Amino acid sequence: MSAYQLGEIVSLVFMAVALGMDAFSVSLGMGMQRIRLKRIALIGVVIGLFHMIMPFIGIIVGKAISNQIGEITILIGGFLLIAIGAQMLFSAFNHEIKKIVQPMGIGLLLFALSVSMDSFSVGLSLGMSGVKTAIALFLFGAASMVLTWMGMILGKKVHGLLGVYSEILGGSILCGFGLKLIFG
Q1: Contact, 173 vs 29, CB < 8 A?
Q2: pLDDT, tens digit, for every residue of 72-86?
Q3: CB-based contacts of 62: which residues, under 8 Å, 6+ apart?
Q4: Following DSSP, what letter does each residue of the chain receive, concatenated?
Q5: Are 168 and 94 in contact (CB under 8 A)?
Q6: Largest CA-CA distance found in the chain, in angstroms, rounded
Q7: What contacts 24+ positions apart, CB below 8 Å, involve 125-130?
Q8: Which of 101, 112, 119, 133 measures 20 to 30 Å from 127, CA to CA?
Q9: For residues 60 and 126, what is the distance between their CA atoms, to the nearest angstrom?
Q10: Closest CA to 31 of 141, 180, 116, 158
Q11: pLDDT, tens digit (0-9, with 9 covering 90-100), for 28-49
C-alpha cells in the first residue's frame, strides 16, 4: 500500500468518525428512552446502512446536478430532528400523549434519515473527487453504527441516573442538534 493510499484511507476514517458523531449525539438523546439492547442493535445497523446509502445517492446525484441540493437536505434533516425532539418533550410533560415517533418502523426510518442527511452532502462532494467509493461507504456505515451503539448505550445509562428528566434532556438534545443543522 502506497503512502498516498494510506493517507486517503486515514482521511476517510476521520471523515467517517466526523459523520458518525451526529449519530452519536442524537442517539444519546434517543437512548434515554426505555429501549432494549436488541432494539439498540437494530437501530445501529439501520443508521449504519443509511450512512452508506445516503452518501452513495449523493455521489450519484453529485455527478448529475449542482451542490445546492445539499443545503436543502440538511434543512430537512434539521426539521425532522426538531420534530422528534419536540414530540419527546411534549410527551415528557403530558403522559397521556402517546409517543408518535418510536425507534421502530417508520419512526426508525425517519430517525435514521434525519441523522444521515449530512452524509448525503458529503456524498455530493465525494462524487466530484473520485475517492474509492466502496471503502468510503463501508467506513461511513461502520463508524456511524458503532457510534450509534455507543450513544444509545450511554443514553440508556444516563436514563437510569436521571429517571423522568432523561426524556426532557433527550428531547432537548434532539431539538438542539436539529437547530444546529439548520443554523450551523
Answers
A1: yes
A2: 766 776 787 787 778
A3: 123, 124, 125, 126, 127, 128
A4: --HHHHHHHHHHHHHHHHHHHHHHHHHHHHTTS---HHHHHHHHHHHHHHHHHHHHHHHHHHHHS-THHHHHHHHHHHHHHHHHHHHHHHHHH-TTSPPS--SSHHHHHHHHHHHTHHHHHHHHHHHHHT--HHHHHHHHHHHHHHHHHHHHHHHHHHHHHHTTHHHHHHHHHHHHHHHHHHH-
A5: no
A6: 61
A7: 125/62, 125/67, 126/55, 126/58, 126/59, 126/62, 127/58, 127/59, 127/60, 127/61, 127/62, 127/63, 128/62, 128/63
A8: 112
A9: 10
A10: 158
A11: 878 877 788 899 999 999 999 9
What distance in Å separates the CA atoms of residue 147 and residue 20, rounded to the nearest whole number? 6
In this structure, which amino acid lies at residue 93? F
The single-letter code of the amino acid at 113 is L
Q: Which residue has the cell 428531547?
A: 171
- pLDDT tens, position by position, 82-133: 877 787 677 667 655 445 456 678 878 888 887 787 777 777 666 656 667 8
Domain range for 67 is 3-183
Q: Residue written as cell 445501529?
A: 44
The number of domains in the chain is 1
Count Cα atoms within 13 angstroms, Cβ side, for 98. Answer: 1
Beta-carbon count within 10 A of 71 CB: 10
